Amino acid sequence: MPINQQDLDDVALTQDEYQLIIKRLGREPTIVELGIFGSLWSEHCGYQHSKPLLSIFPTTGDRVVTKVGEENAGAVDIGDGQAIVMKMESHNHPSAIEPYEGAATGVGGIVRDIFTMGARPIALLNSLRFGPLSDPRNRYLFNGVVAGIAGYGNCLGIPDVGGEIYFSDMYSGNPLVNAMCVGLLETSKLVSAQAGGAGNLLMLVGADTGRDGLHGASGLASRTFEDDRELRPTVQVGNPFLEKLLIEACLELKDTDWIVGMQDCGAAGLTSACVESVSKSGGGLEIDVAKVPRRADGMTPYEVMLSESQERMVVIVKKGNEDKVKTVFDHYDLRSDIIGHVTDDGIARIIDDGEVVAEAPIKYLTDPPLYRLDGVKPEWLDELQQFDFNSIADVRREDAGAVLLKLLAAPNIASKACVYRQYDHQVQVNTVVPPGSDAAVLRIKGTRKGIALTTDGNGRYCYLDPFAGGKIVVAEAARNLACSGAKPLALTDCLNFGNPEKPEVYWQFEQSIRGMTKACEVLGVPVISGNVSFYNETRGEAVYPTPTVGMLGLIDDIDKRCTISFKSEGDVVLLLGQGQASLAGSEYLEIMQGEVAGVPSIDIELEKRVQQCLLSATGEGLLKSAHDCSDGGLAVALAESCIAGGIGFEGELPIIDRLDTSLFGEGQSRAVVSVGSTDLSRFEQIATEQEASILKLGFTKGSSFVILEIIDLPVEELADAWQHGLEKAMG
Fold first, then answer.
1. Is residue 624 part of a domain?
2. What was the pLDDT predicted at 402?
3. Are residues 409 and 323 in the same domain?
4. Do 710 and 576 sit in the same domain of this protein?
5. What is the mean pLDDT of residues 130-144?
6. Using CA atoms, how far apart are residues 500 and 444, in angstroms rounded to an integer?
7. Is residue 284 a part of any domain in this protein?
8. By CB distance 3.0 to 4.6 Å, which of 12, 57, 182, 498 could disulfide with 527?
9. Do 576 and 680 lie in a common domain?
10. In this structure, is residue 554 part of a structural domain?
11. What are the helix (H) ranges across 80-134?
12. Residue-by-residue DSSP string for 496-525
């Protein structure tokens, strides 16, 4: 069958890439080969525009167990022979088309990445972004995504313990849905994604194969899309009950010596699952698509190899053990079929009932052309960065209370309880600090240890200065963990950007990565896994450059965890760090002035000292509370600690230059902490040792929030604004 332009468009291959395929093969590819090349060379699988830059991330460390890119997820040693496995991935485009199924299958896919490594999934987190809820379409996307996450995760019995949700015009029509899963395993029982030597068998397990998800990797996730393009067939449909059976069966198999490895059939389906596993072992493969069970009549080999039907796994079975492995899957009522085997010739050979329909060297399939572009700073950025803050009126003292209430009710700051109460965050009974604090905390049963987890990102900061924004996203995630008493160990990321073929977008991407790298190096936090999501554009308009981070921290003694809530009256409230506050990119500037402008900044060395001070103080049990000072500034951070504890505050804030900057500016490297009066001197000593300044703000007191001569409001009124702001925005 001759290849035409529509065939190339379907798999997002350019004419130059097609000519390269012909050169490598020495002939025209078959239609099946074209589909395989297109999927494996896609941005989603081949990382054509991102791999050259991702290589600058620090990826190793004393506790890192895996090598980035060689396994389904990253693993970190937490002691006692145990490791945490984690990864974050995007399902942005599917969720923009079918929000419920797009989000649900995003959860299903990231969970499979964890248990294929032999780890039991113990926690889910997410990072979500939508357009303003005043728009009916955005409300539809928001409600559908949240319901999809809840519907799938709750059925699996995995607690959804944390995350973040932001709203901006820049995400209208193109929501960001980043899903994270965390698993626990015995380090010695980690299962590889490799296929081993010749003769090992390829067993397909789980759901039958249908036509859903065709061109998901090469088309939907690797190019921009428009409203008038019919893309619903590319969105998969999930079955969480089937996935639950897969989890239990696969975890049972990890305790045997019958298998070599496991791989999720995710993006590009059988193609990526089989080819990538075999590639890591240096072998080849032969698959007979006639042996693949199907749920649709008349499916072609092309459709079978590229289908992204959910809840399917490829298990690499040691020859001679297939009957024993099948018995395990039979016990869980799961279908399992031998569809091929590993060879030693380095060729991917696909046959259809005896007829060869594809035959290509694996080294060509897994070696896509990489593009290292010259990014260009956008011309419009200088004007935003040079914004004159003196051109806007400062907030009046008599209006400061009303502004605080408005900020607390703003969707980006308001409580997300109406979302996370739809998730089961207590199942498995490990959740010690539930959603709503700076980080979630889970116990590790049988030990004194706990882990803390958070997701963070700020598209506005990266829009205004992607280098500074990249540093800030890593620093804030680590600060949230430090405020919880956890030492940051490692991160996973999801990098959400527009079309990388545009020089301005590529510049944003490169600068963000360089900023993240700088922060990771200073703070000692390696990147152990992640995902890149490009082409997040609708009608030519890109989303904010939005790198999101999921970070893991370790608490040696879980009884020494810390939360954001003020605990008792009479405690001293202090500002630790005193990083320079600014209105640049702040929530206040956008809500009250309608502007997104300025240059955000961070002193990453100061950040390191502040975090070490937090860790030392929580380790000694000195802090009653600790809360990252971020969105909404110092006044909002204080108010949130009051709301969480049901206790008031009375004190003074340093007014430097402008009142609005002092109250609502969003300087980095700052935390609001409270200590008992008898522990104050020791805390001051630690801060001095770490060269981290502290400023006494006031005391916990009564039932009102009082900033002398500026704000005097009942905590109950603050709580009402904060607790119901998101619900009111949804109407």
1. yes
2. 98
3. no
4. yes
5. 96
6. 41
7. yes
8. 57
9. yes
10. no
11. 92-97, 99-115
12. E-S-TTSHHHHHHHHHHHHHHHHHHHHHT-
d(CA 435, CA 413): 14
- Spatial neighbors of 641 by CB under 8 A, at least 6 apart, are 564, 565, 566, 573, 625, 627, 649, 672, 674
Report angle CA 46, 105, 215 to the nearest 5 degrees: 40
122 in any annotated domain: no
* Residue 120 neighbours by CB distance under 10 Å: 16
The vertex-427 CA angle with 474 and 126, nearest 5°, equals 30
Mention every residue, 6+ apart, whose C-beta is less than 8 A from residue 456. 127, 164, 473, 476, 477, 480, 548, 549, 551
Supply the DSSP symbol for 206.
Answer: E
Cβ neighbours of 28 (radius 10 Å): 13
**Burial status of residue 474 (CB atoms within 10 A of its CB: 0-12, 13-18, 19 or more):** buried
For residues 188 and 81, is the Cβ–Cβ distance under 8 A?
yes
Q: Give the whole-angstrom CA distance, residue 468 versus residue 463.
A: 10
| 264 token code pair | 């999720």
Measured distance CA(672)–CA(630) in Å, rounded: 10
Q: Residue 414's Cα: distance from chain center in Å? A: 21
d(CA 284, CA 366): 12
Residue found under tokens 């789980």: 206
In this structure, the answer to whether residues 409 and 325 fall within a common structural domain is no
Q: Are residues 291 and 356 in the same domain?
A: yes
Summarize the confidence of residues 453-477 as an average pLDDT: 98
Q: Per residue in 278-309, pLDDT tens? A: 998 889 999 999 999 998 899 999 999 999 99
Give residue 360's domain range.
Answer: 1-40+191-368
Rg (CA), the chain: 26
DSSP percent split of the chain into helix, strand, coil, nearest 5: 40, 25, 35
CATH code for position 36: 3.90.650.10
Shared domain for 355 and 410, answered yes or no, is no
Residues with Cβ within 8 Å of 553's Cβ and at least 6 positions away in sequence, in order, are 439, 451, 452, 453, 454, 478, 481, 482, 484, 486, 487, 488, 489
**Pick from 368, 393, 426: which residue ends a domain?**
368
Summarised one tens digit per residue, pLDDT across range 513-530 is 999 999 999 999 999 999
Residue 193 pLDDT exceeds 90: no
- For the record, the structure tokens of 51 come out as 């791999």
As for how many domains the chain has, the answer is 2
Tens digits of residue pLDDT in 403-448: 999 999 999 999 999 999 999 999 999 999 999 999 999 999 999 9
Residue 231: its pLDDT value, please?
47
Whether 567 and 636 map to the same domain: the answer is yes
Q: Beta strands 120-130 and 160-167: pairing type?
A: parallel
The structure tokens 């949230």 sit at 480
Select from 608, 593, 665, 657 the least CA-distant residue to 633: 665
Of 368, 392, 422, which marks where a domain is finished? 368
Give me 179's structure tokens. 């899903």
Lowest mean pLDDT across 187-201, 384-398, 700-714: 187-201
Half-sphere exposure of residue 486: CA atoms within 13 angstroms, side-chain side:
31
Could you tell me where the DSSP H helices lie in 452-497? 459-464, 466-483
Band of residue 232 on the pLDDT scale cut at 50, 70, 90 = very low
Please state, in angstroms and rounded to a whole number, the distance separating the CA atoms of residues 260 and 282. 14
Tell me the two tokens of residue 293.
């069970």
Show Cβ contacts of residue 45 under 8 Å, excluding neighbours closer than 6 positions.
Answer: 39, 217, 218, 267, 268, 272
Strand (E) or helix (H) holding 697: strand 694-700
**Residue 538: strand, helix, or coil:** strand
**CA separation, residue 412 to residues 27, 408, 608 (Å):** 55, 9, 27
Q: What is the mean pLDDT of the chain?
A: 93
Q: Are residues 349 and 410 in the same domain?
A: no
The whole-model pTM stands at: 0.95
Mean pLDDT value of segment 552-573: 97
Kindly list the catalytic residues: 44, 91
